[in-house]
């Protein structure tokens, strides 16, 4: 990736994974109450996708071929979940969850587009 911009993008990707893993784990363990009704399936999704996001950050950092696959998977997953929150689960999901998933979706679309447009060949 040109001018080592992959490093800050990789850090952002990893942080976008670490934060939901920490928060989701705290909510599931009962050590943190976000102050609104939570949906266990969504929290579980956020934790699992957070782990995939950390892996994507690693692949972006190391400029491996999996960077595109993983960033596309995370972006696509978040978009699908956001669409389901806005339609199927709209009446049971907290507004904060919809805002958070919107934010994640936008950030991951940008990350994916960055990785896709990168001119430096990926290795491995």
SSE diagram, text form:
Elements: H1 6-29, H2 40-62, H3 66-86, H4 95-117
Structure description:
The protein is an all-alpha fold. Helix content is 73%, strand content 0%. It has helices at 6-29, 40-62, 66-86, 95-117. α1 runs antiparallel to α4 (95-117), α2 packs antiparallel against α3 and α3 runs antiparallel to α4. It is globular and about 45 Å long. The mean pLDDT is 91.
What is the compact description of this entry?
This protein is mainly α. 73% of the residues lie in helices and 0% in strands.
Helix count, DSSP H or I runs of 4 or more residues:
4
Mean pLDDT, all residues: 91
Q: Describe the sheet with the most strands.
A: none
What class, by secondary structure content? mainly alpha
Defining key terms:
124 residues; 73% helix
